[in-house]
Amino acid sequence: MSTEFSFKVLATDGKARRGEITMPRGTIRTPAFMPVGTGGTVKTMYMDQVRDLGADIILGNTYHLMLRPGAERVARLGGLHEFARWPYPILTDSGGFQVMSLSKLRKLNEQGVTFRSHIDGAAYEMSPERSIEIQGLLDSDIQMQLDECVALPAKDKDIEKAMELSLRWAERCKVAFGEQPGKAMFGIVQGGDTPALRVRSAQALSGLGLKGYAVGGLAVGEPQEVMLDMLDVTCPELPTEKPRYLMGVGTPDDIVKSVARGIDMFDCVMPTRAGRHGLAYTRRGKVNLRNARHADDHRPLDEESDCPAARDYSRAYLHHLVKSQEALGAMLLTWNNLSYYQRLMQDVRDAIEAGAFVDRTAEISEGWARGDIPAL
């Protein structure tokens, strides 16, 4: 296994890219979906299951882990990989989004952000340097710069101010990260829904010579077409030889359309959160197991799936588990959802390699459009 961080594009089909990120702890096949392991766990899943489904990398959350159990404690216990029994690559986000979205009492300035924990109200400070320090204590393989993410819609002057601050923080994060063989720090493009600001941000970050670049501040309430428009103007400004990561996205349709614009990496809580709330993702679209029509349906979610949760359990049983709020319901549906997402990524990778991306993704979209098979 390589002792350095590297990325190479193995095939292209239009703007879609099939590639590989190579790191000491493993190879990440791209386009890749990273299951979200917010607090050191992918909710309701065993780590062995997550790996067996095809995940090459998971995401950990700096904000949540610094609050509980604490980054210094994780470091004393051998780092996040040993703590969570995941010996493969881990990406940690910077914690900035959670500070903005979860902490009701916060104060932002040039130095960083001060905030109170949503758990117990304790006061904390997060600077670019402290964010990188925490991610280092967690021993993550890909670390994200601290940035300011504004909710959309927002005024242009507020978007520009946040974008400029994020650029200055990126420079400080780069210095704090230093030289870490085999690891990488990614910058985050901001700029809201304003194309000119997105271009400025992408160009300035590209000038820092980082090992990868993320597109942040999207999928925060804006319509899908706005997100895709921002990718259309942003991706061409990012280095072709570096991986591109769209943060917090998304639905299967979001992912397919973003791959078509040159995105290589994704994360989202959607498949795990949906599983805990009775919603299954399948090749026929979404299936809501809360609906009474499933109560007497002996059929599985998908008889052709290679995932036991989708293939071996009846819809009636899944419906019963969901309505009864049994833990097994969340476990099975999350298993199904992550399996579907990883299968989708493999389909996309294979299609790009075969030069059949447009045709294959059209077939996938047609399956979603046809919808689920009605109950008997």
Keywords, separated by commas or semicolons:
alpha/beta; TIM Barrel; 2 domains; 8-stranded parallel β-sheet; 3-stranded antiparallel β-sheet; 15 helices; globular
Mind explaining what this structure looks like?
It contains 15 helices and 16 strands. It is an alpha/beta fold. The strands form four sheets. It has an eight-stranded parallel sheet. The chain has a three-stranded antiparallel sheet with strand order 1-2-3. Strands 7-8-9 form a three-stranded antiparallel sheet. Helix 7 (156-177) packs parallel to helix 8 (195-206), helix 8 (195-206) packs across helix 9 and helix 13 crosses helix 14. The radius of gyration is 20 Å and the shape is globular. The protein starts with 5 loop residues before the first strand and ends in a 6-residue tail after the last helix.
Sum this structure up briefly:
41% of the residues lie in helices and 19% in strands. It is of the alpha/beta class. It has two domains: 6-268, TIM Barrel (Alpha-Beta Barrel), CATH 3.20.20.105; 275-370, no CATH class.
What order do the strands of the largest sheet run in, or round the barrel if closed?
Answer: 4-14-13-12-11-10-6-5
Q: What fraction strand? A: 15-25%
In DSSP terms (H or I, runs of 4 or more residues), the helix count works out at 15
CATH level-4 homologous superfamily of the largest domain: Queuine tRNA-ribosyltransferase-like
Return the CATH class of the largest domain. Answer: Alpha Beta
Q: Low-confidence parts lasting 5 or more residues at pLDDT below 50?
A: none
Tertiary shape: globular
The termini sit apart by: 52 Å
Helix content: 40-55%
- Quickly give the structural class: alpha/beta
How many strands, which pairing sense, and closed or not: the largest β-sheet?
Answer: 8 strands, parallel
Number of strands: 16
- CATH level 3 topology of the largest domain: TIM Barrel
Q: State the domain count.
A: 2
- Mean residue pLDDT: 95
